[in-house]
Amino acid sequence: MYYFDYTLSNFVILFVIASTLVTGCLRFRLSLESNWPLAYYVVLLSYWHGSFDTLDSYWVMAGLICGIVLRFEILGVPVERLFRCLELLVFIYIIRESTALLFRW
User: Fold this and answer.
1) pLDDT digit string (tens) for 11-50?
2) Sequence-separated (6 or more) residues with CB below 8 Å from residue 33
3) Contact criterion met (CB below 8 Å) for 71 and 32
4) How many C-beta neighbours within 10 Å does residue 60 have?
5) DSSP secondary-structure letter at 2?
6) Is 4 helix (H, G, I), strand (E, B) or coil?
């Protein structure tokens, strides 16, 4: 049986999950020049740096690179769609791993 403990670390994980969901929804509604996804990556990097061995470094850095590339619009439309899909995969990974950590799967 899975259960949820009311601890500070679990509430931080819930905050990371909620901010990932909000950023994923807002990424497709806001313009690419918005700074909110970069603020999300600051939160994610601080969580990742403070919590050892919770998220894979390659996934976090891949999401950060996708966020920076999308923010500064370096490439054209087909490559922009590729980076959006890659960032969506990073969001799915973060939600999956955080949920597994939250419920101790």
Assistant:
1) 999 999 999 999 999 888 888 788 888 899 999 999 998 8
2) 71, 73
3) yes
4) 20
5) -
6) coil
